């Protein structure tokens, strides 16, 4: 007789692990199925020349005591175990433009944020106050983001129906300040006159409240969540690729792997892309109109990034991030051509100690479309060595890395001479490790003109099949954790979970 589980979760990204932790702590017999040898999805880390690099999570916000992600991690039982380093209070993100020597600084804490930028834009303090007030007002319209229940669609609609670029233009006519305030839109793949303001607000708010890096990488989140799951008698099975969700009598009966193994459950949660989830189902309960709607949703762009190991004691460690733009308009970075790629990059520094003078490693990240690597789409790798894709692929990656290095060198003279070694990752790498068909890293693209189209309910027409992950509401560590609470609430009840979150704070 095959083993029966209370909950079978497909995918061990943060959404799957968080759902698994919540339900396991409530006594559910949880089984998580993961196709890779390492759990965590975008939380995965890689070691190169003994330097630890993050695959996707380079910093997080909202982790001060009482803030939303702190409360959620406290509830999940991992907050006190995480090794964190707070980014500089006076600059967590630095925005820089080609030809402009000024470093524009995002500071932590709203008053500090305003005062710091006001020193660089002395006539714009009121505009900055209006900007910050609007962000906080919008965040207040999303109860679950604030770990409250209640609030209907009507409350949110005014926050959904404006795009970020239009809003920023409405609070100041200063073009440079407009560009600075949009300067970390690489966090959410912002599109001019399309990305809703609520996306910008929910993400930027958490970082202004507090910004942290993980010492030795973000994989510690998945490590400690997996320990919580195992401590509550759950299990995680790696190297199993689910290919089918079999429906019997109107419910999913079991998940089947490519090797024919079956995992039976009473409830199923998919932490993979909704479109790929539907591809696993041959159910007539899922209507064609719903399938077509999900298939029609646009995935966000992917990235090309280079993980650079630096020579010992050669390159200064910065306890903040840099966002660099070749042109004045940061929204234009998405619109690169093969001739002018890239139009900007993000620079992140590895953190392996409480205090560092020199950095061990640097990650340089730029947008890249899946079409740029489409010629190799029929090659697949799930190991660290991608050389099996062929010499032309290796040449492509080396060429792109050199272009990025030259761009970094212009702003940080001496950077290239400090490089010891490097490895690269393309949208194909993201596809193979994370699982999205086109390597999308930011979830589904949001459009203020049709805001409800990209909101996906955790519930499906199959009563025992739920969805979770970055494609439901918001991507990123905070967004995915909130989505996991939303998914788990379909089983446990929202008020019940939020009461548990509050109880966890009382014990701290």
List keywords for this structure.
single chain, 508 residues, alpha/beta, FAD/NAD(P)-binding domain, 3 domains, seven-stranded mixed β-sheet, 15 helices, 19 strands
Give a quick summary of the entry:
By secondary structure, the protein is of the alpha/beta class. It has helices at residues 14-25, 68-76, 110-120, 125-139, 153-160, 164-171, 175-181, 197-209, 219-231, 274-279, 288-296, 391-411, 427-434, 476-492, 494-506, and strands at 4-10, 30-33, 45-48, 51-54, 60-61, 84-86, 93-97, 100-106, 211-214, 235-237, 242-248, 251-257, 262-270, 302-310, 321-325, 344-349, 361-368, 419-425, 465-467.
What does this structure look like?
The chain has 3 domains: 4-43 and 62-80 and 216-297 and 446-506, FAD/NAD(P)-binding domain (3-Layer(bba) Sandwich); 111-211, no CATH class; 301-441, no CATH class. With 508 residues, the chain is an alpha/beta fold. The protein has 15 helices and 19 strands. Helix 1 (14-25) links the parallel strand 1 (4-10) and strand 2 (30-33).
Number of helices: 15
Distance between the termini: 44 Å
> Into how many domains do the coordinates divide?
3
Kindly state the percentage of residues in helix.
Answer: 25-40%
Structure classification: alpha/beta
Estimate the global geometry from the Cα principal axes.
globular
CATH evolutionary superfamily of the largest domain: FAD/NAD(P)-binding domain
The CATH top-level class label of the largest domain: Alpha Beta
| CATH architecture designation of the largest domain | 3-Layer(bba) Sandwich
Number-wise, the strands total 19
